[in-house]
Amino acid sequence: MSGVNLHAELYKAWEEFDEAEVELRKLRRRISALEEKRDFTQSRCTNIISLLAPIRRLPPEIISKIFAHTLGPGLVDPLKHPLPVLLTHVCSYWRHIALSTPTLWSSLSVEPRYDHNSAQTKQILDEFLARSGTAPLSIFI
User: Fold this and answer.
1) What is the pLDDT of residue 48?
2) Contacts of 69 (CB under 8 A, 6+ apart)
3) Could you tell me the sign of the dihedral formed by the alpha carbons of 62, 64, 66, 72, in that order?
4) Which residues in the chain show pLDDT less than 70?
5) Could you read off the pLDDT of 98-115 as tens digits, one per residue?
6) Are residues 94 and 87 in contact, defined by beta-carbon separation less than 8 angstroms?
7) Which residues face 76 on adjacent strands?
8) By the 8 A CB rule, do 137 and 129 touch?
9) What is the pLDDT of residues 91-100, one digit of tens each?
10) Which of 51, 104, 109, 126 could serve as 75's disulfide partner, Cβ 3.0–4.6 Å?
């Protein structure tokens, strides 16, 4: 290869390679920033959609009554069917309402079980009793 300075060509190729690497790092940082912005915006949209849900237009007192009807008449066994607890896991709005409704926590039926951790059972019962507040208690063992 006459007339071609291979060292100069190699140097030029390495410079182009380095420039491409620098540009790629900039683009990766930009992509990362855009992905973070997209995720934040998507989360914000989800929260706004949640706030627009029709159930949000119902007063908490009505939702509280609906919760009470979901339990039905009778006593709740928190170890078998922890429905009041499940209501607190739907969203923060429902959690606040469920925790503010003492009657959801005041009717208990507990069947002694030997296969359960008694400390865990005591903790669950303590939570129900604490959340029942001043509501009259109904307990069946």
Assistant:
1) 92
2) none
3) negative
4) 1-2, 72-76, 78-79, 81, 112-117, 140
5) 999 998 888 777 776 666
6) yes
7) 108
8) yes
9) 888 999 999 9
10) 109
Q: Which tokens belong to 120?
A: 């865990």
Q: How far are the Cα atoms of 1, 9, 12, 44 from residue 6, in angstroms, in the given order?
A: 9, 5, 10, 56
Cα gap 104→94, rounded to integer Å: 13
Neighbours of 55 (CB within 10 A): 13
Q: What is the 3-state secondary structure (H, E, C) of the chain?
A: CCCCCHHHHHHHHHHHHHHHHHHHHHHHHHHHHHHHHHHHHHHHHHHHHHHCCHHHHCCHHHHHHHHHHHHCCCCECCCCCCHHHHHCCCCHHHHHHHHCCHHHHCEEECCCCCCCCHHHHHHHHHHHHHHCCCCCCEEEC
